[in-house]
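INPUT
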Amino acid sequence: MSSPRKASSPTKDAFKLLFRNPTAVISLLLIVALAAAAITGGTLTGKPPTPDQIESLEEAEILGDTLDMEVNEWAWVEPGKTHLKDKLKPPFSESEEDEGRVYYLGTDHLGRDVAAQLWAGSSISLTIGFLAVGLSVLLGVMLGGIAGFFGRDRVRLPLLVTLLLALTGGIAIPAEATTFGMICFVLAGIAFGYQILVAIAGQRWRPLGGFAVAAAIACIVFGYNIYIENATPEGKQLQHSEEVASVAKDVLLLTRDLGRAQKEFENGIPGAPGEDELWEDQVELEVGYYKMYLAEKRKQNVDYLTRLDKEERLAQEQLDRAEHLESHVDEEFIKSEVDKDDEELAKRHDRQTRWAAQAKDLREKGDRGALQFERIREHIESANEWVEAGLTAMDEAIERADDFDAQSAASRFELMRDLRLALLEAEFRMGVRAVYVTLAMAGAEPEIPDTEEHQKIVDSLNKQAEDLAASTAEAVKTGSNEDAKKSASQDAAIATGAVAAVESVAAAAKAITEVEKRAEELAGIVEADFYQASRDKLAEYVKELRAFVDAGMPVDKREVLKTTADGIDAVIKSGIWKQDEDALKGVAAELREAKDEAVSPQLGDKIERVAKLILATSHNRLEEYDYAIDNRAARDPLVITMEGSNKLLNRRAQMRGDYLKKYEAEASARFDGNSGIVKVRELDGSLRYGVYKWTRHFLVVTAVILLLVITSLLVAGSAQAAADDLRGPLNKVFIPTITVDDLVMRFTEIMMTIPVIFLILVVLALFERDVYIVMGVIGLTSWMGTTRFVRAEILSLREQDFIQAARALGVSDFRIIWRHLVPNSMSPVLVSATLGVASAVLAESTLSFLGIGAGPDQHTWGQILSKGREYIQDAPWLTVVPGIAILITVLSFNLLGEGLREAFNPKLRGR
Amino acid sequence: MGITLFVVSILSFLIVALAPGDPYDKNLDPNTTPADIERQRDATGYDDPVFTKYTTFYGDFFADVGAVITGDDDHEWRLISYQSKSPILPTMWDKMLITLPLVILTTIITWTLAFPTGIYSALRRGGWQDHLLTVIAYGLISLPGFWIAILVVKFVTFNLGVPVIAPQTLGVELDPVRGFFDRTWHVAVPAILGALIGVAVLSRYVKGQMLEVMNQDYIRTAKAKGLDHDTVYYRHALRNAMLPFITMLAGLLPSLFGGSVVFEAIYSWPGLGRWVFEAVFTKDIFIVVTSLFIGSGLTLLGILISDILYSAVDPRVKLS
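OUTPUT
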């Protein structure tokens, strides 16, 4: 558009009118000032700290350190700075802590300056308003524009049905109706493919481009999702959980099938499976249980490793922090004599000493942590290897079970025995590793490869400890003053403790070696005479371990480690035989008592943690099994095998009578329809991970489909035309259509029908408290008005002469939209956007006030206000001041909006 | 309309039912074991596929609604809340009875005050009265409602010594006369506050409509032929200006149902809005879906009624 003559455009006139309106100008100036405050509020003020950070504020202030908190170098107002002496000061009062400082708007309960907080908060509060309105205007203009401009295009209902099919598929899959969803997807895919083919055949490239863009975006989103699942520890956990879930599901399905087959077999229905097949199924079922158990173990290990990663990072942080502190410490200065009279110097000396001590402490902690973690990791990884070995053994068993047909009962038992042996070995190895992990957690040396070499290490440690004890004793004797004596005696106590610890470590190490040896032995025994001896031998080994501990331990440690052994014993047992829950609880209680007697509190804590772990594992597992299968025989097939072949057969017969019948009914009730994923939760509590994953997929799928819908709508016209070209003889066939206008406006109506406040509540309840989500929700629920009037505006514009002229000139749709329609329909949008900012700011503060808006560390005005409400009687300004700030903001946006409305529509003047 | 309601039923159900989170996650009772919870999940059908859940839910819902409509006293309520285990529709009715006085009073005050002020400022257009009313109206529109409510509660309760929290003073036995005044205070304060903002918004509309009509040719004609002002303004102008407000009636019906979540939170009214608010956060999905659906249904009903009224009042509009 290159017109040389600058005619007075309506927009220009409107702005001239606007600037003659004093109220509007004042509001505009106010808004500019507020915007300036918002921009500077984000950069010039520091970030308000979280409640946890407030504690460490003091130290940070001294060090000039960053800690965990972001302190802005350019900040000249610190909203997070606390002056506890100045708390709840009314406005215009002077500070007691900081001479000459005046709190113009008072302080809050932590003595933080309200004015500074408001300034800092303005950045979020106003940004939210603008972003929310931006979102709503974008949606409104887009949909309104589509409805207005393409409104008369007709979308063929089949295309619409295709889109709906895709959408239904997207919902059906996470909603557990997998088959139905897949059918929907396939149908939708075929229909889309047909559309694409039509577009290619008719040489219409635009719809193709649209589909390509949509497909590319979809690929990116899916790719990102896959990346997240494979590259993050949480994603890996998720994968393992899902594995457990899928095995669990298989097991449940198998149980159901087996139950049915059993019934048919018993009733002698013709065509029922033979006994051999039943056997095969039974083996498969049992293997399924073991696999599930092992997969669960593996998942636990992975969970533990993930947690370990985090703790390791923590240890690393401690080390970093220690290094940082050390860099601030001046060793020479600490050693130097400080003149007591120089207060400043003495203060500095104190501080330096404190830092040095802290640094030392942190470094020790970090080092110890790092060492421990490395070892624990090793053990867990090796335990994981055993899990894998167990799983392989299971697979082999399944293979062997395949040629069961002609096998005798004896060979069946051989197979069962091998199967259980493999499991037992894996489990036992894991148990041994668990002992190592426990010891490593308790701070003991877990590395025991060679007894002799180990003995050497222990001896030298002993010697060191004795030396230490002797030297401290010497220090106590020769110590000149009381303080030194005290500290030296403490050192002596520590040294004695160290000696004891070293001793206990040695004993424990021996015990471990013994356990491992026993394990080897046991494996041999198991091979030779599994049924008779294994149970007794296992019990015996534990007994021996206890005796060994009794003999070789210092008195005070004996109890602790003995009960630890008991606990471990119980865990191993519970894995195989599932002892009574009460017994386990007793063990845990004992462990806790033993903790009180432990010399080192650290060791005690660790032991308590172990106790808790033991309790938790046993409790959960027992509960799960109890509910899943209410029959002890069914619950633990292993028991049966161990009790002998005759008994086994009898019990199996019983089982057929009892649990399978019962379970069959239950299982078939559960598996009606296509559901499956959620139903097997009884078998694995962690299944919820899987459900979450599907929910996430649902969101992704929906987003992708929405994109497809929009692009399809945009290209619908051209694809339609191409299809019409192609159809030829089919042209006479009636195909129902609907106008784009109807489609968009019906959707808008539906959105207007749902009560907005409830909708916002529901959506906000899904997410963590975050002000940016509030923003999105406000934007997504307020676009309907804009859509309606943009549509009306464009409908009236597109009939005007200048648009017709542009059309006649052959200007493309895109250009008409961008150069003619959009600029000419923007004035009402501008008005409604300005008013929209006002209502968005108001809505945000209301939601924050209700406690569902801003997150705890996002200091928006609404947040400040709702916190101030607690102190309304003592400090009303905490409520009044942010409220006035909101009022002024909203008022100026409203007035400006009104001014704009008048300016763009002078007919309305004076209303 | 039927299609709209159907789509709304699907949408509101899906938004709530597919949301992550689990009402059984927080096991507060130490005596319930995980197994018990699993049994509860089964009993309430929480783990059913969404399609099944949808059909059962709306089946139960319409069965209950049918019982409400036919006045069936022996009906066994089928929609039960997850958390409180009480039937949803009767509870909703009880909560609504608490909310209704407040909402009705607010609406009455709003509509009776808005028209006179709107007409007055339209007639005094450009005068100082108009300017004053405009400024007040804008101030009121821009007020954060919850904020002014807090301040007023603080003032009335602490400075005047009148308790206004909750629908009536709790834990005190009052004689009928005092009880009446007590309740009046408790209803009046929130109602007046709510109405103030409503008046500001509505009177702006009234003024706009009046001005629109007064610019029309027939008003000029009426003035020209020498009719007195009252006849012109109240017979010719106001009657025509009132027409669009019939559409606003559509919004009244759902507001009677929904009340105000914010005001109920501030004044601790155990009404409908707060009930739903709490249900949302305890993931009591049946309550939430029921409210969403009934709210949408009432909105549609309101639109229908206002359409019918409009065509009855304005002969130019015909029902299609």
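end of record. The longest helix of chain A spans residues 343-402.
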